[in-house]
């Protein structure tokens, strides 16, 4: 039988039981009843009016004044009923948004997808994990016809959906750049113009752009306000900051970017990251860049991909598995 | 996570003292306070961040937006009281080269 049809008799039974003996069980049955009636979308005012009509049936001699008092209770409960129905419909909308967001996140994954190139002599590892559904970090690899490997790592200031949308634009701007003979500084200058013209004035992008030429073992790079990476010198077993000066993308139309150059020897590493790595907050404060170096050192004998995976796991653990910011880490390691 | 913003307007210079943390949650409040001021013609703004314990890139975004507004309205914008961690944020992003930061401290007396 439908709940609504038997609701009246069920409620009557509850009421009679409790009036007879004020037991815990009778109260508990009331709780169970309310769960069922919520499930069947019975409004609170319906219950009040049911209560009132049962009372008249069971106690015809009940004073008029008591019966009148239920009218007030009924009026008050109508407000609660409305609030509850609104809550239900918001929950429904939230479900819809959540599923749309999941689809959007998948679309983004497909749009921004990049393949980590496999080339002889250079071991590459990359990991990028969003703090929320959508990732405001971005990395991209390009291999040109001269076998040069280019790597871009970028971070949109801001998080979530706006940041992710902005990143998709950058990706298309990069794809439409003329492919050959583009140097890191030239690429940043081009992208800067795109961002300056097309993006909301309070949204900015940091980017590091590097290019490795396996013919000459030279690494060319330039930075637009991006968190500096590390260079690991295998011979000296030393890390140093990969400093590069340059303004954020999208602030000044005619920004020039300085290009740097260095030789990469066997066993050397280039470590690139987003600020989600260094802004990783733990109970004791931020993780310092030295801590990050310790982790890289701990896993240095593994492959580049295993190193970045392990560092992510360590930092995730430090933050109790609650990422506050998007996290991206890339390692390029020249084979020994 | 809290932020408090005290505004003191005198002699045509607006002094804004920010305390607390500037992140994705508190940045909108900062923006709401600073943006209308930055849009006034010839405004002079000094933002004091000496009591800011944390700022992430969202906060940086607010200051860049304010800086651009002030510049296009021919005003002056200054940030003072940056801790070394905050100063580093402005250095890395290249903003230290275009925004007037910590000029009082560089003056030597603090």
Keywords:
heterodimer; A: alpha+beta; Methyltransferase, Methionine Synthase (B12-binding Domains), Chain A, domain 1; Phosphatase 2c, domain 1; 2 domains; 9 helices; B: 110 residues; alpha/beta; Transcription Regulator spoIIAA; 5-stranded mixed sheet; Phosphoserine phosphatase (chain A); phosphatase activity (chain A); hydrolase (chain A)
Question: Can you tell me about this structure?
Answer:
The complex is a heterodimer of chains A (336) and B (110). Chain A is of the alpha+beta class and 336 residues long. Chain A has two domains: 3-93, Methyltransferase, Methionine Synthase (B12-binding Domains), Chain A, domain 1 (Orthogonal Bundle); 113-334, 4-Layer Sandwich (Phosphatase 2c, domain 1), CATH 3.60.40. Chain A has nine helices and twelve strands. Chain A has a five-stranded antiparallel β-sheet with strand order 1-12-9-6-7. In chain A, a hairpin with a 5-residue loop joins β2 and β3. In chain A, α3 (44-58) packs antiparallel against α4 (64-112). The longest helix of chain A has 49 residues, at 64-112. The model of chain A has no long low-confidence stretch (mean pLDDT 87). Chain B starts with a strand and ends with a helix. Chain B has 110 residues and is an alpha/beta fold. Chain B has a single domain (3-103), classed as Transcription Regulator spoIIAA, CATH 3.30.750.24. In chain B, α1 (27-38) runs parallel beside α2. Chains A and B meet through loops of A and α2 of B. Chain B: One of its GO terms (molecular function) is anti-sigma factor antagonist activity.
The computed structural class of chain A is alpha+beta
CATH architecture of the largest domain in chain A: 4-Layer Sandwich
CATH superfamily of the largest domain in chain A: PPM-type phosphatase domain
Percent of sequence in beta strands of chain B? 25-35%
On the 0 to 100 scale, the average pLDDT of chain A is: 87
Tally the structural domains of chain A. Answer: 2
Q: How do the strands line up in the largest sheet of chain B?
A: 1-2-3-4-5
Strand count, sense and barrel status of the largest sheet of chain B are: 5 strands, mixed
Task: Please give the CATH class of chain B.
Answer: Alpha Beta
Head-to-tail CA distance between termini of chain A: 77 Å
Please state the overall shape of chain A, judged from the principal axes of the Cα atoms: elongated
Assembly form of the protein: heterodimer
Give the fraction of residues assigned to helices of chain B.
Answer: 25-40%
Q: State the helicity of chain A in percent bands.
A: 40-55%
Summarize the main sheet of chain A.
Answer: 5 strands, antiparallel
SS strand fraction of chain A: 15-25%
Mean pLDDT of chain B: 86
Family (chain B): Belongs to the anti-sigma-factor antagonist family.
GO molecular function, one term (chain B): anti-sigma factor antagonist activity
InterPro entries (chain B): Anti-sigma_ant (IPR003658), STAS_dom (IPR002645), STAS_dom_sf (IPR036513)
Organism (chain B): Mesobacillus zeae
